[in-house]
């Protein structure tokens, strides 16, 4: 590409405002042409704040771009991504790819037929401390991936929680070790069919056992990765603190004070991975097909979980 990549944003919710707009407005190897949101008042306010063009029409935004970042509601993903791919644009989208496995499969197929990049932003695959933790342990015995909340105020059905939040654990676990067989476990739900906790495990292709756990009212906001192997235990807490236990000693490392939250949580490198994939015409490591595998596992978990009568 002999000019700067043109990028547009669809959807201006919390994740777009906290992560993507602050980073993409830096415009180092790309130009941010503008943003679209169906909510006019929000769109005008945010676009004015970031000094970017306010698009009142989705098709006009897409036609002005080479690549589109989709941060709209999950229910809208299929329609927005389909339009972008059909207009020969590359797409980066927040998880999950679409509301259903069937829709996601159709989007993966469409991206292949159109020859366009389709990446799903599973940022934990790009978190620096998670990447480092993978390198620290030899002959891994087991891995635990956990994500807990102090007390969730969400009143949504357990299916939504699994697809919207638990999918992060499922994808991170797959990145650490692909399942060699069925995933076993349990989802505890209350009388309103809201998730209380979930825990699952499986044997990976590398013969490690991998555990996943999430409690929605655990009394703490804790996200932890623990890898246990030969002569070492490594823990990463909240993606910014790493403990390495080796030979009876514990070494604790923290993220550098100058490192941004966007960087330490993997968003920055995920964004740059996509942009470099488009500029260099290479396939993203977490493309639509790879992300679909995580969504299929979540669907299997949902199907095994009964509702309260």
In short:
The protein is an alpha/beta fold. It has helices at 14-24, 40-50, 58-63, 74-86, 101-114, 128-136, 158-176, 261-264, 267-280, 288-304, and strands spanning 5-10, 30-36, 53-55, 67-70, 90-93, 118-120, 138-148, 184-189, 195-203, 209-215, 222-230, 232-237, 241-246, 249-254.
Globular, elongated, flat, extended or rod-shaped: what is the shape?
A: globular
Number of helices: 10
Q: Radius of gyration in whole Å, from Cα?
A: 20 Å
CATH class of the largest domain: Alpha Beta
- Cα(first) to Cα(last) distance is 57 Å
Structural class assignment: alpha/beta
Strand arrangement, major sheet: 8-9-10-7-11-12-13-14
| Low-confidence sequence ranges | none
CATH topology descriptor of the largest domain: Dihydrodipicolinate Reductase, domain 2
CATH architecture of the largest domain: 2-Layer Sandwich
Helix content: 25-40%
What is the CATH homology-level superfamily of the largest domain?
Dihydrodipicolinate Reductase, domain 2
Q: How many strands appear in the DSSP assignment?
A: 14
Tally of individual domains: 2
Strand and helix order: EHEHEHEHEHEHEHEEEEEEEHHH
Instruction: Give the biggest beta sheet.
Output: 8 strands, mixed
Strand content: 25-35%
Mean pLDDT over the full residue set: 96
């Amino acid at each position: 590409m002999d000019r700067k990549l043109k990028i547009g944003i669809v959807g201006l919710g919390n994740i777009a405002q906290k992560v993507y707009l602050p980073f993409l407005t830096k415009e180092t190897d790309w130009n941010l042409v503008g943003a679209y949101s169906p909510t006019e008042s929000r769109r005008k306010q945010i676009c004015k704040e970031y000094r970017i063009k306010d698009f009142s029409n989705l098709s006009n935004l897409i036609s002005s771009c080479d690549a589109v970042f989709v941060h709209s509601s999950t229910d809208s993903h299929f329609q927005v991504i389909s339009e972008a791919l059909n207009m020969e644009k590359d797409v980066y989208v927040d998880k999950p790819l679409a509301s259903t496995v069937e829709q996601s499969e159709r989007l993966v197929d469409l991206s292949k037929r159109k020859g366009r990049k389709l990446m799903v932003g599973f940022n934990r695959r790009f978190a620096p401390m998670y990447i480092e933790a993978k390198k620290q342990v030899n002959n891994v015995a087991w891995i635990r991936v956990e994500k807990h909340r102090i007390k969730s105020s969400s009143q949504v059905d357990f299916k939504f929680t699994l697809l919207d939040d638990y999918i992060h654990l499922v994808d991170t676990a797959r990145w650490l070790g692909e399942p060699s067989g069925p995933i076993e476990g349990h989802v505890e739900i209350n009388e309103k069919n809201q998730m209380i906790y979930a825990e699952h495990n499986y044997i990976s292709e590398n013969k490690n056992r991998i555990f996943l756990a999430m409690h929605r009212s655990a009394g703490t906001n804790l996200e932890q990765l623990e890898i246990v192997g030969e002569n070492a235990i490594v823990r990463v807490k909240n993606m910014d603190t790493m403990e390495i236990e080796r030979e009876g000693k514990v070494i604790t490392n923290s993220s550098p004070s100058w490192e941004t939250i966007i960087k330490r949580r993997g968003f920055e490198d995920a964004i740059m991975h996509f942009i470099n994939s488009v500029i260099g015409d290479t396939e993203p490591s977490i493309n639509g097909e790879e992300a679909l595998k995580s969504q299929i596992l979540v669907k299997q978990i949902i199907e095994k979980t009964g509702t309260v009568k």
